[in-house]
Design a protein that fits this description.
heterodimer, A: mainly alpha, Nitrile Hydratase, Chain A, two-stranded parallel ribbon, about 10% strand, disordered N terminus, B: alpha+beta, Cyclin A, domain 1, SH3 type barrels, 5-stranded antiparallel β-sheet, globular, EC 4.2.1.84 (chain A), nitrile hydratase (chain A), iron (chain A)
Amino acid sequence: MALKPPSGDHAQEHGHNHDHGHEHDHEHYDDMDVRVRALETVLVEKGYIDPAAIDALIETYENDITPRNGAKVVAKSWVDQDFRAWLLDDASAAVASLGFTGRQGEHIVAVENTDAVHNMVVCTLCSCYPVPLLGLPPKWYKAPAYRAQAVIDPRGVLAQFNLFLPDTVTIRVWDSTADTRYLVIPQRPVGTGHLSEDELARLVTRDAMIGTAVIPAGDHA
Amino acid sequence: MNGAHDLGGMQNLGPIRPDRNEPVFARPWERRMFGVAQAVFASGEWNIDRNRATTESIPPADYLSMGYYELWYTRIVKLLTSDGFIDPSELEAGHASQPAKPIRNVLEAGMVPAGVRRGNSSARTATAPARFKAGDAVRARRINPATHTRLPRYARGVEGTVLRVHGVHVFPDTNALGLGEHPTWVYAVAFNSDDLWGPLEQPSFEVVIDAWEPYLEPL
């Protein structure tokens, strides 16, 4: 299996000390590369893990379990009122009916955005996330800055996503401290009445289902 | 434990830096670390709560200086060494030199698709009625255990309202310590930002936590 080349801003990824030079970070990550290889080798040699299973796990989470799953759920909730009612009443069962089940999605609750309430999701204690619907969480969701700020300054968080909500909108932040994983159902953008369910699903972004974005109205022809 | 993991409300951690087009894994070693960790967890040797408690036992200064998958590496090594599955000298050498310890389960590739989709529910059968219902006024207890808990510091001692009843789930505080599952009711509890933080320079908002019944007292 081909490995993707390293990418991104190393200092940012490192999570501490943005002043550290890239040289330090390169050395650090070379070191982590060596340490992880050593760990895997030891565990395989001792018979605790099977490298083929590791490949299969990585492949599953890279290719099959992605935000496209959640987008299908949201689009269906926009066009099918019975499904929407089921989703709001018992999301675990409703999403299971579409085949989306599994680890970190055993107990799902769907929360709908309205003109009055905007929902956003965080895990201040670790990185809990509705994985079967959204895939693995993005780096920022797992990093201290978001986890710390979301519950004390949600509007300051949303500003960093270029989202500015009217003061009349109540923000409700869901801190995933237990076993329930929350899916935000964004509002359907205006001007999309002519779109099919598949076309609507393509408008639904990962961040809109976390609640750090909304889906803008626009030319959706 | 009042560790660095309990981040809610901390300030001055820098910008969030959203990236809408990031790859699932930033580097090859992170990708591999994810797979290794998932395969190790699939052994069934450690429950999720012991897992989390192990990450939380990383000293705060170290925790905040490590990236996400570096924390995973540290946690896995702690679990494997503390329970005698590997010796630190083996990691240094990069090869096994000690006899393997029997392990509960070795995940095979063929089991991955079904295993990933099956999950591992923490829900248990109720043995007592729920103490609270939606709309009840409650207070999060003021507790500071030195061991694992899922009651974040920012909510402790604060009054809120039960929003919904989630069901009965394994209690992490005991399960992390190997003291049993002791399942209890779990509730979504809503707090007003004024009660959590006092006045802020933005309109009041709500924060909802999911709280096991022992975290709550009636008002």
